[in-house]
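Fig. S4 source data, part A: sequence.
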Amino acid sequence: MPLPINTLAPDFAADSTEGLIHFHQWIGDSWCVLFSHPKDFTPVCTTELGVMARMKTEFERRSVKIIGLSLDPVDAHKRWAEDIHTVAGKAPNYPLISDSDLRIAKLYDMLPADAGGTAEGRTAMDNATARTLFVIGPDKKIKLTISYPMTTGRDFNEILRVIDSLQLTDRQQLATPANWVQGDDVVIVPSVSDEEARKRYPDGWKAPVPYLRLVEHSA
């Protein structure tokens, strides 16, 4: 079973391209995107790591730290970075964790407990389920999980959109409707009573049905 939303993200210590990472300590008071890869030198993952390097400033603007994970040793990660730079024009400028003993993939329920204890001899297909992206809040709780097949590259603009929504809820108790983008109306969450909502939004709101209260919001 995948780790449920709003459960504590498992803590761990692991080697990475930027040295030893103590995960919860490394996150600190920031948000975090942890995204995993089944093996180094895989084609779709190569494009993803490069795109994330180019988009890092957009995540930083939202106080989000980026960290990758792949089921190979650090020395392979460093060689892979050269290919990523060739493809994307930018090498990873964030840590890439080594999970060559499969420990973290199991901890995060991306591989079964009986998968073995080493990545050596395993193919990308053997590790195909290690394709999950986690958004983790400053409280170290999982806010989002999305799992992708190896053949479908992630849409990181969608991840930014989700983070904007999560942070809006965290700050202002507002939710976002289907296909929401910045500038669209947002939803007053059910936990906010009408009485409290009138204090916050004296101009009122639109309610096509009583439980759907829409208000204007600008970034």
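Fig. S4 source data, part B ends here. The mean pLDDT is 96.
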